[in-house]
Amino acid sequence: MSILSIGAIIAIGGILAITTTILTAATGTTAVLLQNNQNRKIDIPQINEISNISYQEQQKLLQQTLNNLRNIVQENQMNIELKNERDKVINKIENLNKVLQNPISNYDKINQEATELVEEINELIIRNQSINYQKQEIINQIKKYQNKIKNVEEIKNVEQIIKNPHNFHTKDIENLLNKIEDAYISYELEIKVTKSEAENKKRELTLQKIRENLLKIKEIDLETYQKVIHKYENLENLDESYLKILYDQSQLDFSNLQTKKIRTDIYKIQLELLKHNIDNILKTVEKDVELKEFYPKTLKIFQNIDDLIKQKFIEKEEFEKLRLKFIEVYNSILKKIEYLQTQKLLQKNIKETLEKIGYQIIDSSLIEKLTKGEIIYIDIPYSDEYKVQLRLTEDNQIYFRLVKFTDSLTPTSYEKQKDLEIAQKWCKDYDKILELLKENGIIIENIKRIEPEETEITYILKEEKKKQQEQQKYMQIE
């Protein structure tokens, strides 16, 4: 027999944790993107603030956040090499906005996509800044030759690249530099030079560029410099072809280290922001009796972030592991808050809602038991044999099931027909209940619904019910 016979599983609320997951993610990202633009910010509401705003307001806040994030990614100057990646990120933001129209049933999908989105944007920023730096280094080399060889053909169109490097591929700018260097050598040696003289001059330039790369590595991190320097011994004795290989290697060593530094700088900006938010969370959960259980885990994350910030370099895996741990703990806190909110809303509304459509709840403690996770049974107005079974889970799912208390588990044809008629009446009442709860500000959505024609009603033996009641009385005495 199915978990639900005649009835449904309903999710209540369910977007509080998504809201802060995306807000936290978006704020960390925009903190990096907007370093030079202080007029635009996305603020994360404090945990006590966001838990007090309605679900409709949370949904609106989410959509505004995603729109801001999309606009910032679009406006940020992205290198031509990353155009496809940028478009994918923007499409992902658009898709998230669409599934937000139905936030409860899409809860897992939204959380998963929000997590992936942050990682993708982080990588996009890191790669973009790394390419920016790489292009700027090449352009700085080109600028050295600008005044010296103004009339050389290769230098004439360089201004366009200098002004808008993001519109040109790195490889094309490198090729231009190589042409300019060749032109410079010929120009400096008054055009008519021997092949040997040109090669020597080019060799000197390659040597100089290798040394410049090594110096830049040393300035960023002495330890890395000491690890790679052995590859560049006895440069003076090497021919031009081997020097070119070593130059490419020095470019790669420097580029890898520079990307590592950019990655670390970006992660540290985000971790500082995360640390500030966790500090506020700690103050909240420490004072709240119902949330105090989360204090040790939250404090541990705060300490781990502090340790990570102190590191010279932060790897992607370290950052992502800690960020996801933060989201996991934060969502646990928010789910607990949401569960407590749901308890209060149900205590306030469900008794009144049921009584409006003719259901009498004589025992006032029933609703309190429901909000504590116990299974309760409510009499229906049109038969003494049938009851509605209700249960509220910690995931804010409420189970409704129509059941029948009987002396036998083998119904007659007449009883089956009566079951169907009662179930059909109950389903109409069920729809009214949902409407009234929505009117009272509780966002609900059917996750699973089984119609009367699809299955038989659930039978519970009266003796079994008596035993349950006796057991409950005994537990209360204890």
Describe the SSE topology.
Layout: E1 7-12, H1 16-33, H2 47-50, H3 55-75, H4 83-99, H5 107-146, H6 153-156, H7 158-163, H8 170-188, H9 195-220, H10 222-228, H11 240-287, H12 295-310, H13 316-356, H14 365-371, E2 376-380, E3 383-392, E4 397-406, H15 413-439, E5 444-450, E6 458-461, H16 462-477
Approximate shape: elongated
Note the gap between the termini. Answer: 34 Å
Q: Count of DSSP helices? A: 16
In percent, how helical is the residue content? 55-70%
- What does the largest sheet look like? 6 strands, mixed
Work out the strand percent: 5-15%
The radius of gyration computed from the alpha-carbon positions, rounded to a whole number of angstroms, is 34 Å
Kindly state the mean pLDDT as a whole number?
Answer: 77
Structural class computed from helices and strand pairing: alpha+beta
The unreliable regions are 1-18, 26-45, 470-478
Number of strands: 6
Order of helices and strands: EHHHHHHHHHHHHHHEEEHEEH
Q: What number of structural domains do the residues give?
A: 3
What are the salient characteristics of this protein?
disordered N terminus, 66% helix, alpha+beta, 478 residues
Overview of the structural elements:
With 478 residues, the chain is of the alpha+beta class. Helix content is 66%, strand content 9%. The chain is built from 16 helices and six strands. Strands 1, 2, 3, 4, 5 and 6 form a six-stranded mixed β-sheet that branches. The longest helix is centred in the middle third of the chain and has 48 residues, at 240-287. The two termini are 34 Å apart. Mean pLDDT is 77; it is low at 1-18, 26-45 and 470-478.
